[in-house]
Design goal:
There is one protein chain. The protein is an alpha/beta fold and 247 residues long. It has 2 domains: 48 residues, no CATH class; 186 residues, Vaccinia Virus protein VP39 (Rossmann fold). The protein is built from 9 helices and 13 strands. The protein has a 7-stranded mixed β-sheet with strand order 5-4-3-10-11-13-12, sandwiched between helices. Strand 1 and strand 2 form a beta hairpin. Helix 1 crosses helix 2. The chain is globular.
């Protein structure tokens, strides 16, 4: 974060200047930028990437809240489910004491973007990454990529929905078999969160978890009931992201 970002007038001016520089700059598609002490390979045709250029990082309030919760609760493991370009995983590697960070991203293009960001930040060896969709079964399922510039909206297909490709799926209980840990999870998987939870029941029962889950209003009541069955309760929300824990 710039040392000037905390000055009120500059908090409004800096994003405006960044936007103008982006509009007038070299039209090449990919460039490197530095934000929050990290390097990002930015695709200037993608919405989330342009947000990082103009405002620093997408979902800044959520990122800052989750960082505080991880630190306050002493989480030792972070699971980034729907990691996209890796901003959450890399921020948590940089700013917390989590000893194990695992990122899951099924979209092949987004996974390549994630790998590039890990490489240029020298985090390939300190952040595990898997080109998988976290779900309730191990196998293969239909997948639909988000239409440009909204590649963050890539998603697992519903049973009655036609996909444009297939991706591998895995159960988190099979991937992360630990007990007695304090674990933080970020889940942003475009409506597939219920099935992902069904594949991590043992992880949630056997560990103390703090979860940030993107869940829109039409799905939230059913999702809260599912979490209640596992002993987890919603204690905070920022926009469509909801926070669950046992305490």
């Amino acid at each position: 974060m710039s040392s000037f970002d905390g000055i009120p007038i500059l908090k409004r001016l800096i994003p405006s200047l960044r936007k103008r520089r982006h509009e007038l700059g070299d039209p090449q598609q990919y460039r490197l930028i530095k934000r929050e002490g990290l390097l990002f390979l930015v695709d200037y045709t993608a919405w989330a990437d342009k947000t990082a250029v103009i405002h620093g990082l997408a979902e800044r309030p959520q990122t800052e809240f989750l960082l505080r919760e991880i630190t306050d609760r002493g989480a030792g493991i972070f699971l980034d489910i729907g990691a996209h370009m890796g901003s959450y995983a890399m921020m948590i590697r940089r700013h917390t004491n989590c000893r194990r960070i695992i990122a899951f991203e099924p979209d092949p293009m987004n996974f390549a973007h994630l790998q590039a960001n890990l490489l240029i930040n020298r985090m390939v060896d300190s952040i595990e990454s898997h080109k998988l969709a976290v779900s309730d079964t191990k196998g293969v399922t239909g997948f639909r990529r988000g239409e440009p510039p909204n590649d963050v909206w890539s998603k697992i297909c519903a049973p009655d929905e036609q996909g444009d490709s297939f991706v591998q799926t895995a159960r988190l209980d099979d991937m992360v078999a630990v007990t007695g840990e304090t674990i933080a999870l970020k889940i942003d998987i475009e409506g597939h969160e219920g099935r992902a939870i069904a594949g991590m029941r043992e992880l949630l029962r056997n560990n103390s978890c703090i979860m940030q889950v993107e869940c829109f209003e039409e799905r939230l009541p059913a999702f809260e009931r599912l979490m209640d069955e596992l002993g987890y309760h919603r204690f905070h929300a920022i926009a469509p992201d909801h926070y669950f824990s046992r305490t």
